[in-house]
Amino acid sequence: MKNLLMTRKPLVAACAAAVLTGCLGGSGSGSSAPNFSSLVGDIQTLSNDPALVSGGNVLVEVSLSDSASAGNVVVELNGTDVTSAFALRAEDRFIGLVEGLDLGENTLLAYERDRPGASAELVVTNHPSHGPIFSGPQLDPWICAQPSSQTVEVENPRDGSTANANTRVSGLSTVADDNCAIPREVTYYYQPPAELDENGEPIPCNFTFTGAGACFVPWDADNPPADANIARFTNDRGDTVRSILAVERGALNRGIYSLAVFHDPEQPHHPADPQLGWNNKMVFTFGGSSGGSRFQSPAGTPNFNQAALEKGYMLVQSSLNDHGTNANHALGAETLMMIKEHVVETWGPIRYTVGTGGSGGAIVQLTMASSYPGLLDGLIPSL
């Protein structure tokens, strides 16, 4: 991705199947052949390689020779006009979040309204949000997490035998479907101005939203606090915003992820014109130990790396990137790729991603950096 959406190295999986001759995305992009004789140049996917898109949407840029003529451009998805999804964004780039992709191959077409023959075309392959994309056949049986623990009957697909099992608690309010898909949920927390001690000095608080002395308290959308009752936050770029955190949880690739990011629900937002609180950098936590599971499990509360959060980093983790739950590194890399695509399409561009974690969490960082270069831009392994 260039300029606004950053440039990232393509990813090539050393052990991927022969069909994966393109880039492994989540941080990459792909484009059509440029058309130099027209207003419309080429079409690029900004959130992932066009062969590896998932979840039914993708962030797209149509390059133009004259941004002032953007009103003459038509963009179609499988023959349906989706031009309304596009607008001139920062640096006069014509970008849109294209939704409603069919599973499998989709055709994006862009052309000048008065010259439909001079067009750019790009094929985008969409995969289900529950996967797989390149990791191979999924583990079966796989027991979906639910809002509350339930006893379910599980069948062995090899011999038809059955047994009872108790589901894990997802931490989400919606029941998982048969593919363990659960819609994302976002909860907001804000930081009130610091209380003062008897000497007029600010009383320290913990830069989190859980436990005693937490800096952040729940945001009530029906009765939001007055602006004067919200502290200010300045990230490492020098951008000062209201100190409000969005905490998102959901399911991707049959695992459960969670993230925390500075975001103001009362301010405009588009992934191509993101808010300023997030510094566009990500810390991704990998869990330790080593093991496997047939249960969809929650990722838990985002690992509150206070030093990173205070600089404006997004904090992310997923149950399938916990080495104690999943030691399949291809599945873990695929999950990270899908989460990064989702972040770009929802929150904005990722400047770089830093992995952190010890023991098994260190092993998976090193393996991923070797086998899937580009998914992680920096590593902080520990014992």
Q: Can you give a write-up of this model?
A:
This protein is mainly beta and 383 residues long. It folds into two domains: 3-127, Immunoglobulins (Immunoglobulin-like, Sandwich); 181-382, no CATH class. It has three helices and 22 strands. It has helices at 306-309, 329-346, 360-371, and strands at 30-31, 40-45, 53-54, 57-64, 73-77, 80-81, 86-88, 94-99, 104-112, 115-127, 151-155, 162-166, 185-190, 217-218, 232-234, 240-242, 244-252, 255-262, 281-287, 314-322, 352-358, 378-382. The strands form five sheets. The protein has an eight-stranded mixed β-sheet, covered by helices on one side. Strands 1-2-4-8-7 form a five-stranded antiparallel β-sheet, with helices on one face. Strand 15 (232-234) and strand 16 (240-242) form a beta hairpin. The longest helix has 18 residues, at 329-346. The chain is globular and about 65 Å long. The two termini are 34 Å apart. The relative contact order is 0.14. Residues 1-27 have low confidence and may be disordered.
